[in-house]
Fold:
Amino acid sequence: MPSAPPTASEVPVEEETAHALLAFLRTQSQNTLTRLYQRPSSCLSVFRLLRPLERQLIMNLVWLESAIPASTMAAWVTREGKKPYTNALATLASLHILPNSAVKLNLNPTFKSGLRQAITGGGVSASFGVPAARDTQHIPPDIDTLDAYALERWETILHYMVSSGTGQSPARPSQDVLFLLQRSGLMASVQSATLQITSSGFQFLLHSPHAQLWELLLQYLHMAEERQMDLVEILSFLLMLSTMELGREYSTENLSPTQTEMLKDLRDYGLIWQRQASSPCFNPSRLATTLTSSAPPLPTVSSSGTGSQTQGFIVLETNYRVYAYTDNPLQIAVLNLFVTLKSRFPNLVIGAITRESVKKALANGITADQIISYLTTHAHPQMRKNKPLLPVTVQDQIRLWELEKNRVKSEEGFLYTAFASQADYEYVLNYAKQLDVVLWESPSRRCFFGSVDGHANIRGFIERRTAGNA
Structure:
């Protein structure tokens, strides 16, 4: 019986973009990854970040005691699946989970042992954290308190970014957070010590909270050597946090010096909660426990009582009018990046997408696709009944406004003219085309425009030809 063609929701997962952390891990040495795989929690977290086919290959090999011929595994692969299968093997080899061999397949022994231990629950390595003893004097925070704390810390960072340069005075994050934003290129120092959001920062604000969090954490990882911190200890602690239970209290006694030093930074980002800096225990927030999962990293309902972020709050009409059912200051500030706001009510903001508002967003480095993606991601549930989700006329017009900005492109170069004859012109022009440096030509005017990179070669060629004809 012939199989049905895949629907839109059945797009091959192998073609999905790999997680940002995996791209970072591929750049690390085998020794670094082997040290990381010594912790079962790290093995489980990396496994969760892989794509389905890569996870399937690992599960086929994790319980085998010896290597199997690569041809045996390949015999199960269909003709259509050969490319995804090859790509999956290459990904696992780049992470040093599989050997880079075309003969036999066998998991890295350290990774295999760690994943087995994570699945079966064996061992006493405390890789998944040590639950703290119950403190009768201090009641640990409940999940709602942790969610409110994480949301407040994270929105403080984002609201400071989006409000910079507007004359507002939002709550200021810690100095370490501001340093990280500056090193990430999301904010830059202008006029002495004043920080202002950059073009990359505007794009950052339109990303999902999960992507935003990992972008900052990856920059934190890149700064490990500069801060004389052990990269493996940082990675293992972040991955351990992602396997912890939300609402449970954990002890700090088994943490390494590097991990203990990280506690302050993670408090600033809202990943963990501590009663005091010297407290012997901590609680991971939802931001931490969802680092390697597909669950939303922020609570679905904000502390101000706004609607669900996962359900969406934006209604966009064909006349470019925008209705945002929210009173969240951060969401309103992000909308103000590309929407002209006109009216504001207790739980509703009304505005319009105009040529001027889109041009302002484009000037700040935001692309038309990012605007459309943000509107799609945060569309109101009522909008999701429409097909297509957003009005096509509005999408097309946003892209046309972007094309207006990009229709003229400037290039530095040199104009070559005043050739003695048509033959000389064509001779030099053909040479420049061989170098692939011709940006514009006009045979009727007997001239052409070449890039800066090719000027030295073209000038030398003309001088040699002139000297030869003399």
